[in-house]
Amino acid sequence: MYSLNHSDRLCGWGADESGSLEVCVEYAGWVIDVRLNERDARLRSRDALARALREAYRNGVFANLLNRSLVEGDVEAKAARGQELLDGRRRIQAPQLRRWVPIDRPSGPIDSKPSFLPPTLMRGQSRDRELTVGVWRNGGFAEITVDATWLRLTDSDTLRFALKEAFVSARHEGAPA
């Protein structure tokens, strides 16, 4: 279950199946906001919270992709072109390839270090360390650990605040796991 917020094009809101937990996922895959609509008894266990968070995150990513596709062009024109292709009234033409440019061979040794950042798990904690989330540096929710007693006893607003605090911490101050 996902929804679009056209006034806020920075993110897509995704919810778990029950609609109790929603997360706002921005274009790079980072969670930037959390909403708890009602405190569902199912969210009082660690496994249920992790499952709901994964589902809401996945739906937020899809909502973000859909939102971006709607923003980045004329949907009706894209649909019409697709229908023309399906009806055989339009053909796909391959783009013109650029002329090949020769590559100079290096004269000395080359640096064998990769030029990309390997996937790294970043962890962020809530202020009182009752909740920790793991997020991939290149975007993507990975894991959550939470104190079971605290989760069972806390109210919705405190849980929402702790989740948001942990995601912000992972993004801005997170230490590689």
* Poorly predicted segments: 1-7
Q: How many distinct domains?
A: 1
Task: Report mean pLDDT, rounded to a whole number.
Answer: 82
Please count the helical segments.
4
**What is the gyration radius calculated from CA atoms?**
22 Å
Structural class: alpha+beta
Helix-strand topology string: EEEEHHEEEHHE
SS elements, strand count: 8
Largest sheet: 4 strands, antiparallel
Q: β content, as a range?
A: 15-25%
List the helices and strands and how they pair.
Blueprint: E1 2-3, E2 11-15, E3 21-26, E4 31-36, H1 46-71, H2 75-87, E5 121-125, E6 131-136, E7 141-146, H3 148-153, H4 156-172, E8 175-176
Antiparallel strand pairs: 1-2, 2-3, 3-4, 5-6, 5-8, 6-7
Description of the structure:
- There is one protein chain.
- With 177 residues, the protein is of the alpha+beta class.
- The protein has one domain.
- Helices cover 35% and strands 21% of the residues.
- It contains four helices and eight strands.
- It has helices at 46-71, 75-87, 148-153, 156-172, and strands at 2-3, 11-15, 21-26, 31-36, 121-125, 131-136, 141-146, 175-176.
- The chain has a four-stranded antiparallel sheet.
- The longest helix is centred in the first third of the chain and has 26 residues, at 46-71.
- The protein starts with a strand and ends with a strand.
